[in-house]
Amino acid sequence: MDRCGAERLYDCGKEPTVAKLLEYDAENKKLKKKIAQLEKNSTNSSKPPSSDKAQDKQERSKAEDGSNSRKRKAGGQPGHKGTKRQLIPVEEVNHLLHYYPERCGHCGKELPQEKTANEVGEPFRWQLADVEPIKPIITEHQAHSTLCECGFRTSASLPSEVLKSNFGPRLSSIIAYLAVVLHVSRRGSQEFCETLLNINIALGSVQNLLEDTSAALDPIDKQLKDALPEEPVINADETGWRDRWLWIFVGSTFIYFQVAKSRSSKVLVDVFGKLYKGILCVDRWGAYTKYHKGVFQICWAHLKRDFRGILKLGEATQADDAILFAQTMEKLRKRLMAVWYRFKAADISRTELIKTTKPIRNAMKRCLKQYLHSEDKGVQNLAGNLFKRFDDLFTFIFHEKVEPTNNIAERGIRPAVQWRKICFGNRSDNGAFLTSRLLTVTRTCWLQKRNSLEFLVEAITAHRSGKPAPSLI
Fold first, then answer.
1. How many domains does the chain have?
2. What is the secondary structure of 214-282 as a DSSP string?
3. Residue 241, strand partner residues
4. 296: phi then psi, degrees, rounded to nearest 5
5. Is the pLDDT assigned to residue 305 strictly greater than 60?
6. pTM here?
């Protein structure tokens, strides 16, 4: 509307003007709500960080820098405990070189170039690590034939494990490690072998070695899957995997992955069976609540983002219910987490944790009950959902080995999300098996602080020789 139109509207009198202003106000609120929805990211919704736009991340970074009195420098911040390279023992170094001063720094007298009784203090030590040009170890196996006196010719047989591949278990493990941990493509692995390892290998052989590795990890994968239903506490999450879904299940000492064609509760039935008796720590995705009829722990990190999202939307549309609800719940959440951190630091006992959080939990319940019939649909839905599952918010208060957030599952699945960004998913079931088995083994090794490359060598060696697979249980 231009100035002339505004003047004509004003001349029409009070009622038409008020009606038009209300119409514009309703349209303005609708647009602001739409803008707030479009601006949702991992900080104010359940969207994963991987879905954030680069521009949004840059703007958040600028905002954070602007909130400080001075711009934060890159690298370790004041108070951060630094790390430095530790020297290995002298007896373990390959070469040891000694240096002595040639002349006295005071009188200029020549000094002996060897250890003497006049040497004082400990020498300054500096270690240089390097790698020599890699030369592959080629082992040739020759099967000979012998002619007996009776005239019969007998030929020797090569060991069965030797004939399974032209490449050894360690090279196979390196290629698997490059794929799942470093996210190197098949062609990149081929170039790595030729350039760094001086081994010529065909692109098809790279794929064959990965398939052989998948077969070697099959019994290990099955053992972990069978152990999952017996775990007392499981953290679970899922993420898109091109045209499939990647699920993660974190137990007390291992991590299990499964690439599935759906995001439904059928996957949980396949993994756990018809009934899981333990505690499931998850977000509020419907597949979990539809399947599990036992004890839950709802992730508070997701709830924090939900409160932020409602607050942002409320501020955009000037919705008082949304603003007050989000501010109240976020304030109570912070108080709850402050007490939890005291418990984690061993400042208070479990009994004190239960007692201290009781007023906070009661306040939360009153707040949720107050907004069950809010005029704001978003507030009403969230308040109703949390009120219905109120006990599932505080399982971590009463049960051992339960955390308030699903952080361990999100950390466990993060490398897979990074891998997804540069790969093309899986076009076959065999490819899905390879992905899930490699992730299961390497991320379990990460959780157990084991060397995943060495475990892969052990698994492939056992597979080729027909011996039992190593265990991650």
1. 1
2. HHHHHHHHHHHHHHGGG-SEEEEEEEEETTEEEEEEE-SS-EEEEEES--SHHHHHHHH-S---SEEEE
3. 244
4. -115, 160
5. yes
6. 0.80
